[in-house]
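TOKENISE THE FOLD
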Amino acid sequence: MLKEIIISIQSFFEAHKFIVKHRLWKWILVPGLIYCLLFIAGIYLFWISSNNAIEFIMLKSGVKTWLETMKEGWLNFFVIVGQLIIWLVLLLLYFSLFKFLFLIIGSPVFAYLSEKTESILEGKDFPFSFPQLLKDVARGISIALRNLLWQTVYIVTILLLSLIPLFGWIAPLVALLVECYYFGFSMLDYSSERNKLSASQSIEFISRHKGLAIGNGLMFYLMHLVPFVGWLFAPSYAVIAATLSLVSARQKHVIV
């Protein structure tokens, strides 16, 4: 799996060269600008609601009442750490919901970008077909909704487990890996659809090559550390890098 993760990471750098060489900027900037606006709106909503959510969780779980009866000053440190952990997991949950909304909205562009990338790599044209485009969009939306359901189940479970001492400290890392996997899954599925894999076959294939999905999602998240520029490029770079990573993995016989 480590080799697959490395291939996915390298594919993001290859994606930049690929975009520059083939002048794909117009397909990068438009969805990127839409993504930036949605991302800023999502962060704002998280900022104004996260404290109330944490307070609700602490109250309903009984932790707040228990702390008030204990009146032990040394417990404050663990409470602060616990609240920070819950805040991070909630951030990932919010981001997950926002991300899948954008995947649904941007599925036509992502389907086209993935097809365009493979067309250039293989030196052949995929004839434009509006019915096929609609089919690709429907497939992308159904996969996004399926992944949203399962990822939400996992993240909510991790959120509840984050209240447990010790495990709670690694909960954000576990949640991040889940986030990376399901995002990368959606990016890789565009190639699966084009190669005539059914949804169930795509799920089985990507589950056998989790490293490609995790690496793609990880780089997508790391690009968000660069304000505005990273947000602008992250979505489109991810879908192009996903297509490149599959080609690279086959050339290196990591997958067949």
